[in-house]
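Quarterly update, task 2.4: S-adenosylmethionine-bound model.
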Amino acid sequence: MLREHFAKLQPRCPYCRVAREQDSALYIGEVALEEDGDIREGVLICSDPLCQREHPILDGIPVVVTDGPSWAASQLAGVMRRVDLSPFAESMLGDLAGAGSDFDRERGNNGIYAEAHWGVPVPSYLSLIRAGMELLSAPPGGIWIDVGCSVGRGTFELARATGELTVGLDLNFSMLRIAEEVRRRGRVRYRRRRVGLVFDTVDESAPELARENVSFWCADAAAMPFSRGAFRGAFCLNLLDCVQSPLGLLVELGRLVVEGGEVALSTPFDWAVGATASSAWMGGHSQRGPQDGSSLLEFRRILSAECAAGIDTGLLIEAERDGVPWRLRVNERSVTEYAVYFARLRRKG
Ligand SMILES: C[S@@+](CC[C@H](N)C(=O)[O-])C[C@H]1O[C@@H](n2cnc3c(N)ncnc32)[C@H](O)[C@@H]1O
Ligand SMILES: [Zn+2]
């Protein structure tokens, strides 16, 4: 985390906002490792004397969450993972741990997204980013955020488009580590599944990107560590159907974006059962109701001016595009393809 980015972003303590309804600034406490204004290890501390909560910076990535133990339950293994193992040792350990192990899942999932974002010659994700940019009413400017950035390609492309600082935010530390390595070293490093437990090592230089203008943060999209209206706009690609509360995510996006700002949101409405209880899905159930179980109709209803749900996200749909292809390579003989829905949302004034 660059000190100059911290100064521009003026992050806030999410714990204070969620639990105490306070808007408390964070400040940089002890720094254990720093290179040229880039803090690799340190701590961000809540300035409210009643809170003083500590949020670590690990491998250059601030981890700013409301509930440390539940974040650690899913993420600590990724943080602690050795990244210096040779491909030989990793392959041995992968075979030993077996299919479906935490190690196998993390390596496979990271590889799928890294390949989509950074694969050569043309990463499939670029067409999705382009669709998002095209849906905006004008070329983006000012400080933007890429919510659910994964391994970071969208964040870099937004920074290139705006010419300004762009934040990439995700809860998954091991994915962010891949993004952070691109930012810091200009290297793209991941394992790509060939078949079963057989992986190839990808270790290449990243394309020309605005590396000085991106900042990666590990945080929950349900409680982001920034103040109301901190961003001119947001990308939120393929996250809606992976969170505990899709409605809560929309409310949080509405809070973060400045009045009149825009959100480019895409989703395949492929509800992840492990993440979102079916009662919280938008559509995907209740096919006897007025929306016929359609996720798209329910999404439109929630974001319409006359929404009867009683929860105002502050966002309205302004433009839409449906059926945009999103391809994820699973292994050398398998690809998953979604038809993604895109919306441009406007933050009400
Ligand atoms: C389906 S992937 C999409 C990633 C990327 N935007 C893309 O389109 O390739 C969803 C991403 O959201 C992240 N994610 C899931 N729940 C999250 C949450 N509550 N807060 C922040 N990120 C989250 C996951 O770690 C993952 O990187
Ligand atoms: Zn606090």
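Highlight for this quarter: The chain has a mean pLDDT of 95.
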